Amino acid sequence: MNIFRFLGDMTHLISILILLLKIYATKSCSGISLKTQELYALVFLTRYLDLFTDFISVYNTVMKLVFIASSLAIVWCMRNHPLVRRSYDKQLDTFRHYFLLLASFLLALLLHEKFAFQEVLWAFSIYLEAVAILPQLVLLQRSGNVDNLTGQYVFFLGAYRALYIFNWIYRYFIDPHFTRWIACVSGLVQTALYADFFYYYFISWKNNAKLQLPA
Amino acid sequence: NPEPEVHDEL
């Protein structure tokens, strides 16, 4: 495992911790898209089926379990916690995420490394993760103001994707057999989706101002 | 085509 991959995993973990902190400390999930969180839970559940079939390392297994447990906990809180669920911006979270599910599934049926149950679901999880942030970005854009923790959450999530690209570039040169086209192309698409957000994030950081997205 | 290896990334 190279440093980019490790830092990518860590920023991913930090983003989830920031989201948990926001929900726990403020008992509020305002600005957070339940649809994006549900898609992430599905991404982890379908991708990490290999927990039952392949052992890679203790690190891998622990991280997978943490991602599954934390994503399910976030969805549960947003749906069921009496205080948290009242703060959910349901009227702003209107992205038609079923289209993302359907498109990702059809693409996985067409493009996969091997036509097998687990491999098709793996490809599905890769495609779905690439677009799962869209409901969140749309919600932020519609609400305009982004609170500090929500802004940091999306920033670290984007940083995780960018670091994974450096990880692939590194692997490509170190290991010439490394060809993960599905993951790499989807990862590029996924990172590109953050470009707009990053732009406004850095402007607000440079001006030391509150993060605001144009309507 | 080589067999896909295990998915070692998260």
Topology:
The complex is a heterodimer of chains A (215) and B (10).
Chain A: H1 3-26, H2 34-47, H3 58-80, H4 97-110, H5 117-131, H6 134-143, H7 148-174, H8 181-192, H9 195-206
Helix pairs in contact in A: 1-3, 1-7, 2-3, 2-5, 4-5, 5-8, 7-8
Chain B: no helix or strand
Structure explained in plain terms:
The complex is a heterodimer of chains A (215) and B (10). Chain A is 70% helix and 0% strand. With 215 residues, chain A is an all-alpha fold. The longest helix of chain A is centred in the last third of the chain and has 27 residues, at 148-174. The N and C termini of chain B lie far apart (24 Å). Helix content of chain B is 0%, strand content 0%. Chain B contains no helices and no strands. Chain B is mostly loops. The interface between A and B is medium-sized, with 20 and 8 residues. Chain A: Pfam families: ER_lumen_recept (PF00810). Chain A: GO terms for molecular function: ER retention sequence binding. Chain A: This is ER lumen protein-retaining receptor. Chain A: Its main location: endoplasmic reticulum.
Helical content of chain A stands at: over 70%
**First-to-last CA distance of chain B:** 24 Å
The amount of beta strand of chain A, in percent, is: under 5%
What is the element string of chain A, with H for helices and E for strands? HHHHHHHHH
Please count the beta strands of chain A (DSSP E, at least 2 residues each).
0
Outline type of chain B: rod-shaped
What pair of chains forms the biggest interface?
A-B, 20 and 8 residues
Output mean pLDDT of chain B: 74
Could you list the spans of chain B in which at least 5 consecutive residues all have pLDDT below 50? none
Q: How many strand segments of chain B? A: 0
**Total number of helices of chain A:** 9
